[in-house]
Amino acid sequence: MPTAQPWADYVERFHLERPGITETLLSRAADGHGTGPYAWLGAAVPDGGPVLDLGCGSGPARELVGRWVGLDRSMAELGRAQALGRSPSVLATASTMPLRSGSVAAVIAAMSLMVVDDPPAALGEVRRVLAPGGRLAVLLPADGPLTVADRARYAALLTGLGRRALPFPRPEVVADPVTVLEAAGLEVLADDRRRFACALDKGDADLFVDSLYLPDVFPRRLGLARALVRRWGSTGIGIPLRRLVARPRAAADRALSCGRGPRSR
Known about the structure:
By secondary structure, the protein is an alpha/beta fold. The radius of gyration is 19 Å and the shape is globular. Helix 6 (about 150-160) runs antiparallel to helix 10 (about 220-230). It has helices at about 5-15, 20-25, 35-40, 75-85, 120-130, 150-160, 170-175, 175-185, 205-210, 220-230, 250-255; strands at about 30, 50-55, 65-70, 90, 105-110, 130-140, 185-200, 235-250.
């Protein structure tokens, strides 16, 4: 029987054993216009200035922004990024960024904010390192949009896993990111959702299941989940994602005091 394990230990082992797995899965997904999740996220930040990739993993966003620097706590993930020529990067936690205050034009966080140890502390660091007028762009799992077939497949998958929902270390970030961002002094400027179709062949069943955070799940249930995914065939599954763009609240307050008013969402 699986034993309970602290999330921090589980996430560390997960990325040690499967570096780059999130990129491998999401790189196969695209929306109705052929845009991938990472390109969608990168399009939300301004060009020109340095961009910090928070929880960069294997660095899939490296080619999508100009002056990129990655930050991750997983040596295995950063090792994969460096092997792919994605640099510079730094080994550090989100709550203690070794960067000067006001040194980056934008921060992106692709599928990482819901796994950091302390989201409020991490977002406090985001505010500190952002230059005036800087932006934060966050990519998170979402509960829609999905097709009817998608919902039926996810329902069957969750039943097979013995779960009511997919778990995350910081579920409040996924459930209500607007509140989390605003509590950290960040004003949400845009909040959008998209479905990314991900085609899977039979050999990809393990990839899809192994990309999920599933602590304390019986091996028998993992095997059942893989069998279910194999039945999806080439039609695959929709992956719903949410992109939020925010800026430090102080920037909005200064704009109001000068009579310009906030930017439209």
